[in-house]
Specification:
Order of helices and strands: EHEEEEHEEHHH
Number of helices: 5
Number of strands: 7
Number of domains: 1
Strand order of the largest sheet: 1-5-2
CATH class: Alpha Beta
Strand content: 25-35%
CATH architecture: Roll
Structural class: alpha+beta
Largest sheet: 3 strands, antiparallel
CATH superfamily: Gamma-glutamyl cyclotransferase-like
Helix content: 25-40%
Distance between the termini: 29 Å
Length: about 170
């Protein structure tokens, strides 16, 4: 494949450092708000915790904020692998950008009542702040109930990565 695709990040990939770990060519184009969409944490991850998903049509007053990145087509397979089989790629038209792709949870991976691990929620918080999303939206993310990761090594690894990524984002 040649060229690049536009990708809308709304979960942990909002954090530019995390996305660049998965797709080094990722180039931020800007942000977008999806009116009439809502952010959920009900996608069951491989680790059993809740991951982000967006759902259209649940409340006309709801809104999801995302970051639009250009990603080299040659890196799309690696991003697919990082996202895993629980997500499917969907196309969406956003007025300012035209056609973009985003990951949405496959129905069989949606489990209501899941909670994210704290480190996962923190990737989303850091990314939302980095992109300057509205304070009430960031507060909504911060208010999401979370649980500690039962795997202390994985938790330490992600906490360390968050620190590294925070330092890297400050240098952007």
């Amino acid at each position: 494949m040649t060229g690049e695709y536009l990708y809308l990040a709304y979960g942990s990939n909002l954090h530019p450092g995390r996305l660049r770990q998965r797709s080094p060519s990722a180039r931020l184009l800007g942000t977008a708000a999806l009116g009439g969409w809502s952010l959920h944490w009900h996608k069951r991850g491989v680790d059993g915790s809740g991951k982000c998903n967006v759902v259209a049509g649940r409340g006309a007053r709801s809104e999801v904020h995302g970051a639009v990145y250009a990603i080299a087509a040659a890196e799309w397979a690696a991003l697919d692998e990082a996202e895993g089989e629980g997500y499917g790629v969907q196309a969406l038209k956003i007025p300012k950008y035209g056609g973009v792709f985003l990951y949405m949870a496959r129905p069989q991976y949606v489990v209501e009542g899941l909670r994210p691990y704290r480190w996962y929620r923190d990737y989303v918080v850091h990314g939302a702040r980095y992109h300057g999303f509205p304070a009430p939206y960031v507060a909504q993310i911060l208010a999401m109930p979370w649980v500690e990761d039962p795997d202390p090594r994985r938790s330490r690894d992600h906490e360390g990565a968050l620190g590294d990524l925070a330092r890297g984002a400050a240098e952007d």
